[in-house]
C-alpha cells in the first residue's frame, strides 16, 4: 500500500486539488464573496440559536471542515468578542465504509482541552450528502464524552440523505442529481474559495 | 505496505512514517476514559505465541481489543503442538476457523515468513527466533521521535547481546531507513557472524569498547537483554565480568549524561537488572523504558489499523 492521500470525509466532494478535473469545469455555484457571506450568516445563526456563546465548542470534520470551523470561530470572535474552544474531529475510524475502500490515513484530531462534556458541540463540514460522515462523527463524539447538544453546520447541503440526519445551519441548499459531484475548494487547502458542480464520471 | 508485516525491510520510509503518524493518533485513544473505537469490529486476531512474552502479546491483545477486534491468545504450551502437531497443521487449523490476522512469535528464525506462505490471513511477525521483531523497532522509533522529535541524524548506540537479538536486526534496518547514525557494541563473542560485512554495506559502526561508544555522547542508548535462555554457556566468563565491560552501571550512566544531557536510555525488556543495566540507569529520569511499553500499544494499534481496517491489501 502506498500512503493513501488524506481521506476525504464526504463521499461526494472532490478528492482534492491533485485531480486534473474541476479546473474551469462545471459551473460555479458559490463564489468566494458568496461563500464569505454564507459563512458570516451561519456564524450569526449559530450564536442566535444558542442565545449567545455559552457552552459552544466548534469541531470541524477533516479535511475541509477544519478550516471552515476556524473561519466560523474567527467570525464569531469578531462579532461577539469571544474566542470559542474549537478543534477537529477525525471520524475515519468510525466510518462504516472502511472495508469498502483502500485504507485511509488518519486525518488528525484535536479536541479542546476543556473537552465536550456538557458542551453544545457545533460540527462543521463542507458538504452534507448521504449523512454517513455525520453518523460516524456522532459515534466518535459519544466516545469522547457527553455533549448537551450537537448541532450541524454545513457549507453545502446537496440532498440525497441515506440516514435521518439534517443540518441546523446551511450555507447553501444545492439541489443536485446523484450523478453530479460537488467540489468545494477553500483557500486554506486548495488556494481559492469556490464551490462548483461537476458532471460525475465516477 | 505489504499484506503482512514480517520484516522491517518490508517497510519503506514512507510506510514507517505513516505508521508512526497513525500511532500518534492512536495514543490519543489510549488516554481516553473510554478506550474503545469500533474500527476493527468483526475482525478476529489470533496471538499465536510459541515463546514466552509479556509486553508484546499483551500489547497486541490490548491494541486489538481497544479497536473492537476479537483477540484470542494461544500459547505453544498447552496447545496441540505439545501433542506433536506440526506448525503447518496448527496454523492451518486456526486459520480454518476464519481468522483475519495471526500475530506470531516462534523460536525459529523465518517461522513467520514460512507461515505467511501457507495461510490467507495477515501475518504479523512478533519475533522469530534471533531474526526480526518489527513492531519493537517501530515502537523504538516512536519513542525516539517522542523524545528527540526526529530519528534522522541522531546518534544511536545499541549495546549488548547482539548475537541472539532480533530487536537489533529489526532496529538496524529501521534506523538505517530513517537515517540515524548507529553504532553497535558487544563483546566479540556476542557479535553475530558476518556483521562486519553488514556494517560495511549498511554504514553503521561497530566496536567492542562500550566506553568508547559512550564517549561519543549518543542521543539514544539502547541496552539489550542478555538472553540467557538462548545461551549454552561460554559467551562471557562471569556475569560480573559482563557487567564490568558492557553493563550500564551507575558510573557509565554519569558519563553518558555528562557527554549528552539529552540522551535517553531504552531497553526492549525484560531487563536483567544488575546485569546489563543497573537499577539506577533503569529508573533514571533519562530512562524511556516505560514510554516504550506505552508506545507499544499505540504502534500496534497503528499496525493493525493499516493491515486490517481496509478492504484487504492490494499492492
From TrEMBL, chain A:
EC number(s) stated in the UniProt entry for this protein: 2.4.2.9
Renumbered residue ranges of the record's region Disordered: 1-26
Domain Phosphoribosyltransferase: 33-169
CDD domains on file: PRTases_typeI
Gene3D superfamilies: 3.40.50.2020
Residue spans of biased composition, Pro residues class: 1-18
Motif stretch (PRPP-binding): 121-133
Keyword line: Glycosyltransferase, Transcription, Transcription regulation, Transferase
Enzyme class: transferase
Reactions catalysed according to its record: UMP + diphosphate = 5-phospho-alpha-D-ribose 1-diphosphate + uracil
Family matches, as InterPro entries: PRTase-like (IPR029057), PRTase_dom (IPR000836), PyrR (IPR023050), PyrR_bifunctional (IPR050137)
Family note: Belongs to the purine/pyrimidine phosphoribosyltransferase family. PyrR subfamily.
Function: Regulates the transcription of the pyrimidine nucleotide (pyr) operon in response to exogenous pyrimidines. Also displays a weak uracil phosphoribosyltransferase activity which is not physiologically significant.
PANTHER family in the record: BIFUNCTIONAL PROTEIN PYRR
HAMAP family reported for this sequence: PyrR
Protein name per its UniProtKB record: Bifunctional protein PyrR
Organism: Arsenicicoccus piscis
Gene assigned in the entry: pyrR
Amino acid at each position: 500500500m502506498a500512503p493513501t492521500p488524506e481521506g476525504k470525509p464526504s463521499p461526494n466532494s472532490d478528492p482534492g486539488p491533485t485531480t486534473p478535473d474541476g479546473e474551469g469545469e462545471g459551473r460555479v455555484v458559490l463564489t468566494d464573496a458568496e461563500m464569505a457571506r454564507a459563512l458570516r450568516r451561519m456564524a450569526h445563526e449559530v450564536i442566535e440559536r444558542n442565545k449567545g456563546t455559552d457552552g459552544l465548542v466548534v469541531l470541524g470534520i477533516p479535511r475541509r471542515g477544519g478550516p471552515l470551523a476556524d473561519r466560523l470561530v474567527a467570525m464569531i470572535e469578531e462579532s461577539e468578542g469571544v474566542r470559542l474552544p474549537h478543534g477537529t474531529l477525525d471520524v475515519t475510524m468510525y466510518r462504516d465504509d472502511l472495508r469498502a475502500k483502500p485504507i485511509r490515513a488518519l486525518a488528525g484530531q484535536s479536541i479542546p482541552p476543556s473537552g465536550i462534556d456538557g458542551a453544545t458541540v457545533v460540527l462543521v463540514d463542507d458538504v452534507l450528502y448521504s449523512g454517513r460522515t455525520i453518523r460516524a462523527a456522532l459515534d466518535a463524539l459519544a466516545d469522547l464524552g457527553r455533549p448537551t447538544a450537537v448541532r450541524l453546520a454545513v457549507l453545502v447541503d446537496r440532498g440525497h440523505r441515506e440516514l435521518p440526519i439534517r443540518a441546523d445551519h446551511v450555507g447553501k441548499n444545492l439541489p443536485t442529481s446523484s450523478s453530479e459531484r460537488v467540489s468545494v475548494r477553500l483557500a486554506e487547502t486548495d488556494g481559492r474559495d469556490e464551490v462548483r458542480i461537476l458532471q460525475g464520471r465516477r | 505496505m505489504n499484506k503482512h508485516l514480517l520484516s522491517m525491510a518490508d517497510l519503506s520510509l514512507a510506510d514507517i512514517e505513516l505508521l508512526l503518524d497513525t500511532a500518534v493518533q492512536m495514543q490519543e485513544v489510549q488516554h481516553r476514559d473510554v478506550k474503545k473505537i469500533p474500527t476493527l469490529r468483526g475482525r478476529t486476531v489470533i496471538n499465536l505465541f510459541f515463546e514466552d512474552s509479556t509486553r508484546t502479546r499483551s500489547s497486541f491483545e490490548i491494541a486489538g481489543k481497544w479497536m473492537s477486534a476479537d483477540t484470542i491468545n494461544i500459547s505453544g504450551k498447552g496447545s496441540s503442538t505439545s501433542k506433536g502437531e506440526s506448525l503447518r497443521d496448527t496454523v492451518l487449523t486456526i486459520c480454518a476457523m476464519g481468522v483475519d490476522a495471526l500475530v506470531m512469535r516462534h523460536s525459529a528464525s523465518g517461522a513467520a515468513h514460512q507461515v505467511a506462505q501457507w495461510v490467507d490471513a495477515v501475518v504479523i511477525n512478533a519475533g522469530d527466533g534471533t531474526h526480526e521483531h518489527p513492531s519493537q523497532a517501530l515502537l523504538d522509533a516512536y519513542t525516539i521521535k517522542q523524545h528527540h522529535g526526529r530519528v534522522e541524524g541522531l546518534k544511536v548506540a545499541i549495546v549488548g547481546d547482539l548475537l541472539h537479538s532480533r530487536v537489533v536486526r529489526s532496529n538496524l534496518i529501521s534506523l538505517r531507513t530513517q537515517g540515524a547514525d548507529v553504532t553497535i557494541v558487544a563483546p566479540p563473542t556476542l557479535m553475530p557472524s558476518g556483521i562486519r560485512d553488514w556494517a560495511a554495506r549498511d554504514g553503521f559502526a561497530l566496536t567492542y569498547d562500550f566506553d568508547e561508544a559512550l564517549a561519543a555522547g549518543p542521543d539514544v542508548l539502547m541496552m539489550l537483554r542478555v538472553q540467557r535462555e538462548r545461551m549454552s554457556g561460554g559467551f562471557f566468563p562471569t556475569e560480573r565480568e559482563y557487567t564490568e565491560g558492557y553493563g550500564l552501571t551507575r558510573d557509565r550512566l554519569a558519563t553518558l549524561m555528562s557527554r549528552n544531557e539529552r540522551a535517553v536510555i531504552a531497553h526492549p525488556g525484560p531487563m536483567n537488572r544488575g546485569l546489563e543495566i543497573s537499577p539506577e540507569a533503569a529508573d533514571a529520569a533519562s530512562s524511556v523504558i516505560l514510554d516504550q511499553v506505552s508506545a507499544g500499544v499505540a504502534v500496534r494499534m497503528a499496525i493493525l489499523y493499516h493491515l486490517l481496517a481496509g478492504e484487504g491489501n492490494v499492492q
